[in-house]
Amino acid sequence: MDRKINNLYITNICLNNIDHLILKRRLGDDLEFKNYLYKNIDKYFVEPVNDSDTLQEDTSYIVKKDDKLVGFVHICKIISNTISFHYAVSPSERGRGIGTEILRELPNLIFEDIDPNLEIKLKINMYNYASQKAAKKASYTNLGRDNDDYIYEISKTK
Predict the structure, then answer these.
(1) According to the 3-state scheme, what is the secondary structure of the chain?
(2) For the chain, which residues make up each domain, given as ranges?
(3) Pairing relation of β-strands 8-12 and 68-75?
(4) pLDDT tens figures, 114-145
């Protein structure tokens, strides 16, 4: 599956997929991102990939730009009509608007592919100023804090 969001592509991937091995091999150039993904990748990239051309809940995806890995996204399970997602942008690609682009466009795909009536929430660590700035640029509303995280929500765009 390749879903285009502006100039980025979201591609599904999982632990038992050859793409998982290719992903780990490609991370060699960016040690900080490699370490981050090694801590998180096996935790998130464990669901089998189906042949669907749509986003699925509880599934992880890589984000590519010009065939280069620039980040990843994990769509969480739906709980009480609310879905959330985690995302990361490669340190070498930060400051280029990729996080804002993901935050702006991914909800539209979630509404289109999964359920148009969902609430979408995003937790951002209170010290992650770059993600907080990206969330504001992408029109998320800050709902307040939950321990060390701010909770953001995005409304369905018309």
Answers:
(1) CEEEECCEEEEECCCCCHHHHHHHHHHHHCHHHHHHHHHHHHHHCCCCCCCCCCCCCCEEEEEEECCEEEEEEEECCCECCEEEEEEEECHHHCCCCHHHHHHHHHHHHHHHHCCCCCEEEEEEECCCHHHHHHHHHCCCEEEEEECCEEEEEECCCC
(2) 2-154
(3) unpaired
(4) 899 999 999 999 999 999 999 999 999 999 99
Cα(117)–Cα(119) distance, rounded to whole angstroms?
A: 7
**Superfamily of 2-154 according to CATH:** Gcn5-related N-acetyltransferase (GNAT) (3.40.630.30)
Q: Is residue 144 within 8 Å of 157, Cβ to Cβ?
A: no
CB 2 within 8 A of CB 60: no
For residue 48, what pLDDT band results from cuts at 50, 70 and 90?
Answer: very low
